[in-house]
């Protein structure tokens, strides 16, 4: 029987970034801590604003992703809302300002154009300004650089309702690929056409694209860092309809990767059993008929045992905490809020990552 040469086992450090509008500034702080801790990322994945952050990390122009990412977010911040306002008032004021007047570095309302017709447009905002902002920080040619982390971003096909995944290992990225992940229809943002596909925000299917990373890289085991922008736990019950919608939104968008991790553990146990059975059969004297049957199974065994499913060896969740429950907190681009989110993400990640990779 021919000897099976197993592929060398490997491990990857993976950062998974969620969508969440202006809350993505928290992920900037998380990444600053990752860089300060000296953690080398092999894969960075994201959807929506997480895809934008991931792209800057993987394809930044300066070679200092933490610096470029922070500059991007400070550039996205608006300085109209007074920083001295109480937090709840600042959230309300800034989000209402963004809804009415947009953000010149990200999106602009179409109703400011005289030719706009509400009844004949499927969207309300133009996000082409975001493309121009991204181009200040991103060099798409650098995505293929072997020294950069692999980039995986997700979007949703408008017509067939399936996930569209872009992977720097196989795809040549442009700004359209990134914008396609950020077209959130519930906020009136358009789809983006990439090739023959019309694509919306990846959060419509999955706001934490760990499963997509596993599918893209099924051989290597993973040590995973997830920036969770939407709290899973909330002890106090909603008191108003707005708070109820806010809590429901958090539940829909929060990290739901536990099932993927459980399946990883189950698969690893199955594979161990299959390997033991295979090893026993190799050392048993078989007649010619059974030897031939075993040889016919070798190819399938090789796929299962040697190109095995990913095992999640470690997972760190860095979770944003909420002091108040405001439905449109993800549209608060005030400078005070952006700086606070970066600061909180950095502090939370520094403590959470203290022992990352040491198990």
Question: Major sheet: size, sense and barrel closure?
Answer: 8 strands, mixed
* Tally of DSSP helical segments: 11
> Total strand count, please?
10
* Radius of gyration over all CA atoms, rounded: 23 Å
Q: What helical percentage do the residues reach?
A: 40-55%
Quaternary status: single chain
The best one-word shape is elongated
Mean pLDDT: 89
Number of domains: 1
The CATH architecture name reads 3-Layer(aba) Sandwich
Order of helices and strands: EHEHHHEEHEEHEEHEHHHEH
Uncertain segments: 1-8
Give the distance, in angstroms, between the N- and C-terminal Cα atoms. Answer: 38 Å
Strand content: 5-15%
Structural notes for this entry:
With 359 residues, this protein is α/β, with parallel strands linked by helices. The protein has one domain: Cytosolic phospholipase A2 catalytic domain. It has helices at residues 24-36, 49-59, 65-76, 87-101, 128-137, 175-180, 210-216, 241-253, 258-282, 288-306, 335-352, and strands at 11-17, 43-47, 108-109, 125-126, 150-157, 163-167, 192-194, 197-201, 221-228, 312-319. The strands form two sheets. Strands 1, 2, 5, 6, 7, 8, 9 and 10 form an eight-stranded mixed sheet that branches. A hairpin with a 5-residue loop joins β5 and β6. α9 packs antiparallel against α10. It is elongated and about 85 Å long. InterPro entries: Acyl_Trfase/lysoPLipase (IPR016035), DUF3734 (IPR021095), NTE (IPR050301), PNPLA_dom (IPR002641). One of its GO terms (biological process) is lipid catabolic process.
């Amino acid at each position: 029987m021919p000897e099976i040469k197993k592929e060398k086992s490997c491990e990857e450090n993976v950062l998974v970034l969620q969508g969440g509008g202006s809350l993505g500034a928290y992920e900037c702080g998380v990444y600053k801590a990752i860089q300060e801790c000296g953690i080398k990322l092999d894969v960075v994945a994201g959807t929506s604003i997480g895809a934008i952050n991931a792209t800057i990390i993987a394809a930044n122009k300066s070679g200092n992703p933490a610096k470029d990412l922070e500059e991007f977010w400070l550039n996205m911040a608006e300085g109209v809302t007074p920083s001295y306002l109480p937090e709840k008032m600042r959230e309300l004021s800034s989000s209402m300002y963004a809804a009415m007047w947009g953000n010149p570095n990200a999106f602009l309302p179409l109703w400011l154009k005289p030719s706009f017709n509400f009844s004949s447009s499927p969207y309300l905002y133009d996000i082409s300004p975001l493309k121009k902002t991204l181009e200040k920080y991103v060099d798409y040619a650098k995505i293929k650089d072997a020294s950069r982390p692999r980039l995986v971003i997700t979007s949703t096909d408008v017509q067939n309702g399936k996930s569209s995944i872009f992977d720097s290992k196989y795809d040549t990225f442009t700004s359209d690929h990134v914008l396609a992940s950020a077209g959130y229809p519930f906020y009136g943002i358009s789809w983006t056409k990439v090739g023959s596909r019309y694509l919306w925000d990846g959060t419509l299917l999955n706001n934490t694209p760990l499963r997509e990373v596993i599918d893209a890289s099924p051989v290597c085991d993973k040590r995973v860092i997830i920036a969770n922008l939407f709290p899973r736990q909330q002890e106090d019950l909603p008191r108003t309809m707005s708070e109820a919608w806010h809590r429901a939104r958090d539940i829909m968008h929060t990290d739901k990767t536990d099932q993927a991790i459980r399946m990883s553990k189950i698969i690893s146990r199955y594979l161990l059993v299959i390997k033991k059975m295979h090893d026993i059969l190799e050392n048993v004297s078989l007649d010619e008929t059974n030897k031939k049957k075993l040889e016919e199974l070798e190819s399938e065994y090789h796929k299962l045992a040697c190109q095995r499913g990913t095992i999640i060896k470690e997972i760190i969740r860095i979770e944003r905490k909420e002091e108040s429950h405001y439905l449109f907190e993800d549209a608060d681009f005030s400078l005070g809020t952006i700086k606070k989110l970066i600061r909180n993400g950095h502090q939370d990640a520094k403590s959470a990552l203290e022992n990352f990779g040491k198990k």
